[in-house]
Design a protein that fits this description.
This protein has 160 residues and is mostly helical. It has one domain (2-151). Helices cover 71% and strands 0% of the residues. It contains five helices and no strands. Helix 1 (2-35) runs antiparallel to helix 2.
Length: 160
């Protein structure tokens, strides 16, 4: 599972980087060309589509690196075993939330199937598909972290 998540991370990082560079170039080119009355009418829709995917990819990459915002000032003062129990409860709650957003993300894809981007002439589901797709990746990342926590449960070290 760890190897699969590493491959997914590399792919997400590369896709996210390409999309971010594309957004910057596209928005800049659109602004410059607008000065010459040559607007790129599809730039806003394309940028919005890529931004949705980048946001979701970023959420998964942050989860993999355990760098989501958290308040652990109090928890760090607890004994290691209690920290692990709190971490496990936190993982379970996060997993439930990921399942929740995946379910509603799929419903949103279905609802948006007929809705299209005005300029791109593609279904809006291409944007909303980011939610369940990356939720699956996030669930895999979370599962890896739970397994790691359980494998090292007996260790006396504090939770990272």
């Amino acid at each position: 599972m760890k190897r699969i998540n590493e491959v997914i991370s590399k792919l997400e990082y590369q896709v996210g980087t390409v999309m971010l560079i594309s957004i910057v170039v596209l928005v800049f080119a659109s602004a410059v060309l607008r000065l010459f009355d040559l607007p790129i009418v599809w730039s806003v829709d394309a940028s919005q589509l890529m931004f949705v995917w980048i946001s979701m990819i970023g959420a998964d990459l942050a989860l993999k690196k355990r760098s989501h915002m958290g308040v652990d000032l109090l928890v760090r003062s607890f004994p290691a075993k209690l920290q692990k129990v709190i971490a496990l409860i936190s993982y379970i709650l996060c997993g439930a939330f990921i399942v929740f957003i995946a379910y509603w993300g799929i419903r949103l894809c279905i609802l948006n199937y007929l809705r299209t981007y005005q300029t791109l002439k593609i279904s809006y589901s291409f944007a909303t598909a980011a939610i369940p797709t990356i939720a699956l990746c996030m669930f895999s990342s979370l599962l890896e972290q739970v397994i790691d926590l359980l494998l090292h449960w007996k260790d006396t070290q504090r939770v990272q």
